[in-house]
Amino acid sequence: QVQLVESGGGLLQAGDSLRLSCAASGRFFYARGWFRQAPGKEREFVAAISASGYSTYYADSVNGRFTISRDNAKNMVYLQMNSLKPEDTAIYYCAATRGVWKAQMWMESEYEYWGQGTQVTVSS
């Protein structure tokens, strides 16, 4: 059973930076993703990274501001968030899939494992 645990959330001001971390139980090298859910909205894709770390994919809303990375030696995935905006306020979820890297990595249905989420709040 794969368990994912997010950390690093907090309360920030617009323009701040923050790094989220996602720890995984056991050693595996699955593709990983970050999603977020704002109050009253559906969960949406943020970023994804392949098992090797060679391929990444971003939502248009965060492209150029957020960076996803991974450290397979530590079984960790990170989301570096810069130039934060109030609209980035959400619960951020880490996800993992045993499936192959594909163009549909933005879809929730591609991921089998999910963390419990970490809250990020950005004030103006």
Explain this structure to me?
It is a single chain. By secondary structure, this protein is mostly beta strands. The chain is built from no helices and 11 strands. It has strands at 4-7, 10-13, 18-24, 31-37, 44-49, 56-58, 66-71, 76-81, 90-97, 113-114, 118-123. Strands 2, 4, 5, 6, 9, 10 and 11 form a 7-stranded mixed sheet that branches. The chain has a 4-stranded antiparallel sheet with strand order 1-3-8-7, with no helix packed on it. The protein is globular. The model has no long low-confidence stretch (mean pLDDT 94).
Quickly count the helices.
0
The general outline is globular
Largest pleated sheet: 7 strands, mixed
Strand tally: 11
What keyword list fits this structure?
124 residues; 7-stranded mixed β-sheet; 4-stranded antiparallel β-sheet; 11 strands
Task: Draw up the topology in text.
Blueprint: E1 4-7, E2 10-13, E3 18-24, E4 31-37, E5 44-49, E6 56-58, E7 66-71, E8 76-81, E9 90-97, E10 113-114, E11 118-123
Parallel strand pairs: 2-11
Antiparallel strand pairs: 1-3, 3-8, 4-5, 4-9, 5-6, 7-8, 9-10, 9-11
